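Now read these lines:
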Amino acid sequence: MKKIKILSVLLLLVSTAAFIAFNMYMNVIVDDEPPVVTCQQKEQVAPIDVTEKELLRGVKAKDNRSGDVTDSLMVEKMSAFSDDGKRVVTYAAVDDSMNVGRCEQTITYEGYEPARFHMDSSLCYKIGRKVDLLSNITAESVLDGDLTGKIKYALKSSINTSTVGNYPIEYRVMDSGGKVVYLNTYVEVCEASELAFEVYLTDYLVYLNVGDWFSAETYFAGSEREGTLYFNSDLDVQTPGTYYVDYIVDNGSVSGKARLVVVVE
């Protein structure tokens, strides 16, 4: 009985020693500590066309076993742009044991602006005519250039081309920085007598800042027929929102009309 107890104690001691030795071995062999990635600055200002190589200047990575692993650094991800033209960049580096270390830096982009919509004709359609909701709207960005192919739209209700009225529509587009911009406006179906001839504008969509000066005559480019020009508008340049200026040329029997969309920011 005494020998059994002694043997049990010996087995326990051997097991404990083996466990300690195994853990010491694993601590020596197994590397689960990621490299330390550091940025010289927590924030930096960069041009809109900055490259990944340029962003990585001043970013270092060091590992407790692999040493300097700066060469493994890469831009892992970028956040969407904030309203003030900033985004958070996440840098990542990997050591010889495939542990990944990271750090973040806030980038302010010089010259960044959200995408803009443009229109080359008004969203006014003669009753009974086909409505093509993407035929007269484009979008561009200082970040990506032409974004027209990425424009999406949503209607609150289907457009009935046989019924006169204003139909709400929301256009949206996203740039490669993840910034989505919207244009909420209307598609108008008009009586044939209201659109008997063409009225032309220099622009059909303009952006203004609050308090900017606005002159409706500036955007009038002429009409197919002579007549009296007058304006119908709800524009308030002191309040942000989307407004409309209708340019109506009346020759006494029929009229022509074009609509200018004004976005006050």
Summary: The longest strand covers residues 100-110. Residues 45 and 108 are 5 Å apart (CA to CA). Helices lie at 2-29, 52-55. Residues 2-29 form the longest helix (28 residues).
